[in-house]
Amino acid sequence: MNTPQSNLEILDAVVIGAGFAGLYQLYCLRDQQELKVKVLEAGSGVGGTWHWNRYPGARCDSESHVYCYTFSKELTEHWNWSERYPGATEIVDYLNHVADRFSLRSSIEFNSRVVAAQFEEGNGYWNIEVDTGQHYRARFLITAVGCLSSANMPNIDGLDDFKGECYHTGQWPHEGVQLEGKRVGQIGTGSTGIQVAPVIAQTAEHLTVFQRTANYSVPARNHALSTQERNNHKKNAATTRDISRSNGNGHGWHINKQRALDTLEEQRTAIYEKAWQTGGLKFRASFSDLLSSNEANSTAAEFLKVKIQQLVNNPATAASLSQIDHPYAAKRPPIDTHYFETYNRDNVELVDLRKTPISMITKDGVVCHSIDSQGLEHETHHDLDVLVFATGYDAITGTLLRMDIRGRNNVKLSEAWSAGPRNHLGVQVAGFPNLFTITGPGSPCVLTNMPAAIEQHVEWISDCIAYLNDNNHTTIESPESSVEYWVTEVNKAAEETLLPKVKHSWYLGANIPGKPQVFMPYAGGLDTYRSICDKEANAGYKSFTIS
Ligand code: N01
Q: Counting beta carbons within 10 angstroms of the beta carbon of residue 34, is it exposed (0 to 12), middle (13 to 18) or buried (19 or more)?
């Protein structure tokens, strides 16, 4: 990489991204270890995923008292969440507060998208290039780019011809979008689609939801937090933190040890009903065998399908919404606020793409086609003013691979991962010394409450860097044999669950044409993962090569 010296800054570490992960990583290295650190952020402010995801109804599915940092007692004491689940704006406010409270802003370069990073064999530094032309040289390169930050825009025939407004939920204009009096078409019914549809329906003249795969959802039962609830959360913060660190998912609850298959039907239904009334992702914790046994899972799936049929008035719409082809929670389970009830509104229509697939987009809408019992083809034109793509992300690896990251021998990360991501302990890629990936592939990442996984990763990486510096080492890297071991562990953990059995899942990269289909997260649980990582650190990072 040709680097003009005038545009070069030399640092101990560069962190890419100023979301939850990047801010905490900066704090740990700069304030606790007095290293020279810079965070490079593509956006104009802090927030990461939440800086971009401003679609109507954008809200976290984790509860606010656990969707936050736990490293500072004063921060926990000071901050007051307003609702059970934090909205996107409130999360951005929280992260701005964190940036100000710990004076982080002076070490962040905003509007600075990293386009390339190259490991320089001669001096052992990373040379990092930003789209502004600025270069940074740093011993350590840490990616904190989030798992869901590269929007997936499907390649549908005619999309460029559409003359109306067109938005992806993950790139929603910060100033908002006027939907009053407009006919809106929404493509996608994942967690985002399920959040956004009820809110669009309240303002748009008409909403057409194009559903390719029906999805389960459990009511979120969001509400404003009372002072007493908030005080209880603060009083119990240490206990909640212990729980979130001692279970597999990083949430503030335990998974019921009871097995669905060992439970009498009447009692099982009562447990599901209670979880349905309580609302939220905790429904997944109703029994211990829901994600390991198809038979157990189908008890939850059937319960939820009946709920959908009860909530939706039109029998054909109810059938389309409840004909779900995968086990419950084998894809990321959404939670909602009146999603199914939205289809009872006069201004909302569901188009089941399994019966009438999209053939093309025209200048003023979407064309779907069907074949009747006589074999005759029919076309329906859905007239639209606005198209909303809730079509997800090139998840977990997308943002990492969009940067031109090159390790030893000028090998690109995209070449090293051409058959799917491979790394050691979910943090280090063979041939890419001193590069750490926070909540990347091979780590529990998206299967957890993210701040819990982020704190674990950031603390482990920070301890590792302190160890290297304290012992006058300059480089840590993963030998291929360690990568081989960890890839086997990741595959083994996934195979023990129903998760990799869903073929059309973004956990596998199956939503992106041409992406290698490999189950990317580590499914063995955050608790198990933490203890494996701790053991490695306590043993002096023996499965890594240190020099
Ligand atoms: O994306 P998705 P998402 N034609 O990939 C459909 C997190 N999140 O943004 O299933 C028609 O899950 C696709 O259909 P199918 C959370 O982790 C977090 O909803 O592929 N349809 C699917 O219905 C979540 O899992 C919060 O058949 C097409 C949808 O688009 C993750 O983000 C809140 C299509 C995509 O669903 C991603 O969720 C919201 C096409 N060509 C989201 N292409 C929090 O609370 C795609 N689809 C933190």
A: exposed
